[in-house]
Amino acid sequence: MSLILNIVQAVQLLAALVMIGLILVQHGKGADMGAAFGSGSSGSLFGASGGANFMSRTTGVLAAVFFVCTLALAYFGNLRPVSSGSVLEGAVLAPAPAAEVPASGAAQIPTK
To answer: How far is the CA of 55 from the CAs of 6, 22, 23, 35, 74, in angstroms?
Structure first.
């Protein structure tokens, strides 16, 4: 069970780091306005608009992987073994000792 948890945590960590990197590399929607006037680079690795589509789809897939890993970690974190019950089930309750009740209220007043 701990091997599965370690694998899920590693996948979640890698997905988070790669997703952060992809989000930081992507251009915003306002960045295309500068490209219309010639200041942007029209020739890119994935073509004119292919890079944005590739990166946004990859970010979406990594977000889904991160979400599934988070759900799996929450599920495995809340699992309890069936054989062991509550801690209180095994406890033996001792009867409470009976308290002494004084005969009158005068015995409770300190004299000095």
So the answer is: 28, 7, 8, 18, 28
